[in-house]
Design brief:
By secondary structure, the chain is α/β, with parallel strands linked by helices. It has 14 helices and 13 strands.
Amino acid sequence: MKKIVFGLVGVGRIGVMHATNIAGLQADLNREGIALELRLTDVAQEHARAVADGLGAEFVPSVAALVSSGIHGLVIATGTGTHPELIKAGVDAGIPVFCEKPVAMNVPDSLPVLDYVREQGGVVQIGHQRRFDAGYLAARQAYRDGELGWIHSLRAVTCDMAPPPVDFLATSGGLFRDVSVHDFDILRWLTGREITEVYAKGSNNGDPAIGAVGDVDSALTIVTFDDGTLGSVAASRYNGAGHDVRLEIQGSADSMMVGLDGQAALKSAEAGVAFPAGEPHRTFADRFHQAYRAEMLAFVDLVLGRRENPCTPEDAVAASRVADAAQESLATGAPVRLDTSAAVQL
């Protein structure tokens, strides 16, 4: 049986989710003759030990010890500010890296990381899990097969049921970089086109502390693509109905909506319509459980050399470039043009 070992850095909320998913892949991989082991570390060592014990994983006391311990893949689930140096550490060790989005806090901080990865010949997959969601995959295929005709409108929605702690928001980069960046990525990925202009507005009607740390709790971004197609990206920290992630694609031949399932966080105002009748999704981990699992399976395949990189650092920085422009538009009150030649060079 072939053995591969993953090392994971960071056992906060999303790190524990990734660690749990990695441990849960073992049964499927066993059928392929692959044994997957997990080692993990975190500066909160006692918590990391407890997580490791609960998953049958091995605790390692430091990042340096983890990277040098003979692992075959490095999973980074730490705060954004630590991503650049951890990516470089994995690349320096010649280890394929999976890193939660984004590459860095903003595009200027990301570009040196891209250069470093290229120069060293590193392999880095960035975590944009929606690329592995069955609905988004089906919509992308329908568009590419010509079933929708040409697209005239795209409407994306991402709304959390409740905001995360304000201390997280103070370092998240803002609603566009933390939430809407997923929509910016999926719109580029689905259409295969570049976003050339954004115009963003935001509001604060919830906790005043969110505004006090420089963020907004709700926002709307109008995007224009390089072929003139229009789209909107709505986001909110306050959606009491549940965690709401949808994408409406309207084409000249047909229309399609991702996320309109029995657990969608909305109600119909029409008489006699009971759909959706299921319990709404409450968190992103609930909504994208299967996508996160498929994303980590893709990283296994990347480590084994069985597939191309499904989300490169260049992909992630292109989405971050749109998020940065949305943040600029919010600050200035004016549309912001994006340099598409720069996007092509990423």
